[in-house]
Amino acid sequence: MAKYYENTTTFNYSWEQVTQCFWNRYPNPFSLHVLSEDTVCREIKNGKLHSKRLLTKTNRVPKWGERFFKAKSVNILEESVVDPKERVLVTYTRNIGFNKIMVSVLHQVKRMG
């Protein structure tokens, strides 16, 4: 049986502040759980910025998963699309390691009017 969790957060900040914070997340000295961040590709298509980044993180495995593997880190693929005209930032993040045991997917949409 799969577990699914969804969360929505409203940021009371400007479009510029939210998108700038997104791009400045990694690397930064306060994110010690992020071991590396590499941009795989970045291009503009139809006025939208499409990016793919490969992250290596040391996030803890859920308690139930600890008996299946003792991984110290996991590779994560983050894909994003920024539409400055519509002021929409969409991110799709998923693990690309250990996905036969557990898949973690995070999909976020940040829209400002």
TrEMBL record:
Residues 2-113 form the PRELI/MSF1 domain. InterPro entries: PRELI/MSF1_dom, Slowmo/Ups. The lineage of its organism: Eukaryota, Metazoa, Ecdysozoa, Arthropoda, Hexapoda. It holds the Pfam family PRELI. This is PRELI/MSF1 domain-containing protein. GO terms for cellular component: mitochondrial intermembrane space.
